[in-house]
Amino acid sequence: SDLALRLIDRGATLICDDRVCFNDDNGQLVASAVQGIAGKLEIRGVGIFAFLHLHSAPVRLCVELGYEGERHPSPWPVREIDGYRVPLLQIDPFTASAPIKVEYAVKSVVDAALWPVPIAGLPHQGKT
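and the corresponding structure tokens:
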């Protein structure tokens, strides 16, 4: 939630906090808001607030929070999500540079056209 709030402050748009639903939309992995928490974000110590939000958006990057990944990963690491290989960024979400790293990672995967790739032979089912 803290990193999401800092990204929103930098111009990002929220889908929802804590959980999204993944679906295949004509060969593209899409993240959608979970009913009841769409557009809501908990600001710890302050409360839960409603933000302008998107109902859904194509997935371009998976951000794994907790620790920094490799310094110069090659090839780009991936995470499997609902039968897709998704470019992965591993970061410590509480560093001051975390939102900027996310922005540059998204730009890098978009510029390199590293879209989530379907894994052959796996069924695509909506997951939360």
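(Above: one complete record from the training split.) The mean pLDDT is 90.
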